[in-house]
UniProtKB/TrEMBL annotation:
<dbReference type="InterPro" id="IPR002048">
    <property type="entry name" value="EF_hand_dom"/>
</dbReference>
<dbReference type="Pfam" id="PF13499">
    <property type="entry name" value="EF-hand_7"/>
</dbReference>
<dbReference type="InterPro" id="IPR011992">
    <property type="entry name" value="EF-hand-dom_pair"/>
</dbReference>
<feature type="domain" description="EF-hand">
    <location>
        <begin position="1"/>
        <end position="32"/>
    </location>
</feature>
<dbReference type="InterPro" id="IPR018247">
    <property type="entry name" value="EF_Hand_1_Ca_BS"/>
</dbReference>
<keyword id="KW-0106">Calcium</keyword>
<protein>
    <recommendedName>
        <fullName>EF-hand domain-containing protein</fullName>
    </recommendedName>
</protein>
<dbReference type="GO" id="GO:0005509">
    <property type="term" value="F:calcium ion binding"/>
</dbReference>
Length: 98
C-alpha cells in the first residue's frame, strides 16, 4: 500500500523517488504544501540517502507501527501524523494566508 502510494511520485520510473520528483509532484497537486513537502521528504527518507525506495518504505512503515505488531492501525497512523503536523506546523500553517 505505502509503496504503491510512492510510485506516483517516481516520475522517471527508476524505482526511487528523488527530492525533486517528490516536491514537484506535491507542488503541482497541492501548491500550498511546497515547504511542508520538503519536511515530509526528510521524514520519509529514513535511510538519509536522498532517495526514497523500498528500504525507506519498509522502515517508514515500521515507524508508523507504534506497537510493533506488524500492522499499522488507523489509530497509529493518525497519532503519527498528528505528531508530525504539530512538529512542522510552522511549515504548513493553518491554511490562512494574508
Amino acid at each position: 500500500e505505502l509503496e504503491q502510494e510512492f510510485k506516483k511520485y517516481d516520475a522517471d520510473g527508476d524505482g526511487r523517488v528523488s527530492r525533486h520528483e517528490y516536491t514537484t509532484y506535491v507542488t503541482t497537486t497541492t501548491p500550498e504544501l511546497h515547504d511542508f513537502a520538503h519536511a515530509l521528504y526528510d521524514d520519509y527518507d529514513v535511510t538519509g540517502d536522498h532517495h526514497l525506495d523500498h528500504v525507506d518504505y519498509d522502515q517508514y512503515y515500521a515507524k508508523l507501527d507504534a506497537d510493533v505488531d506488524g500492522s499499522v492501525t488507523r489509530a497509529e497512523f493518525v497519532d503519527y501524523w498528528v505528531k508530525l503536523f504539530q512538529a512542522t506546523e510552522h511549515l504548513h500553517g493553518h491554511g490562512h494566508h494574508g
